[in-house]
Amino acid sequence: MDLQGAVVLVTGGASGLGAATARTLVARGAKAVIVDRDEARGTALASELGCVFAKADVTDAAQVEAALEAATKLGPLRVAVSCAGVGWASRTLDKTGKPHDLDLFKTVIGINLIGTFNVLRLAAAAIAKSPALADSARGVIVNTASVAAFDGQIGQIAYAASKGGVAALTLPAARDLAPAGIRVVTIAPGIFDTPMLGALAPEKRAALAADVVFPKRLGDPMEYGALVAAIVANDYLNGETIRLDGSLRMPPK
């Protein structure tokens, strides 16, 4: 699928992986709608890139529908990328024996898994209305899981569960949406240099990079954006979760 002139929607697009994705797709000729809760950052990036910003919480159906409406005003929607997500660390039992906070678990699942599904289902409905291209293709939805879906560390039970759910829904979603000509692919990033890691001390960041096999560094968000663009371009990629991690396998802690 050609990105030139294609309408794309990117959630979590104001920073990190989402911002890198928006930059990459716009640079390749796409017309983007950046979706985020951070209005200040989202508006600034949209202004810089010459695209549209839509403030929305991915767990809110009405807000996501409004963002999709803004996208379809630009033309037929072809691509939706879900990068919105959160991560908080907490053990099933802490050192005092206190159990994991249930509301925190629900919040992580709500944003990372239910929010991703909410965008997927609503974006699919919008893409399904777009005119068919070659091979009856209409578009592609790219989700973001994490290597934690497979190698969840101590304290990552909520995050790993949420991202494992995203990986697990990929194939059935691709099968469900095949009659509409919509592909579904998930990226499972390793340790990327995003705002989520920005608060860590330099020595902690260096320790994380040391676990990467090669290249021995944190991932560059633009490498995530480049993979999104490659997924869009390759019409035979479908129903798969792709690890983007420098061959990292996360240790227990």
Low-confidence stretches: none
The proportion of strand residues reads 15-25%
Overall mean pLDDT: 95
Task: Count every beta strand, where a strand is a DSSP E run of 2 or more residues.
Answer: 7
Lateral arrangement of strands in the main beta sheet: 3-2-1-4-5-6-7
Task: Give the CA-based shape.
Answer: globular
- Helix and strand succession? EHEHEHEHEHHEHHHE
What is the number of helices?
9
The major β-sheet equals: 7 strands, parallel
Q: Rg to the nearest angstrom?
A: 18 Å
Q: Helical amount among residues, as a percent range?
A: 40-55%
Quickly give the structural class: alpha/beta
- N→C terminal distance: 40 Å
Short description:
The protein is α/β, with parallel strands linked by helices and 253 residues long. It is built from nine helices and seven strands. Helix 1 (16-27) links the parallel strand 1 and strand 2 (31-36).
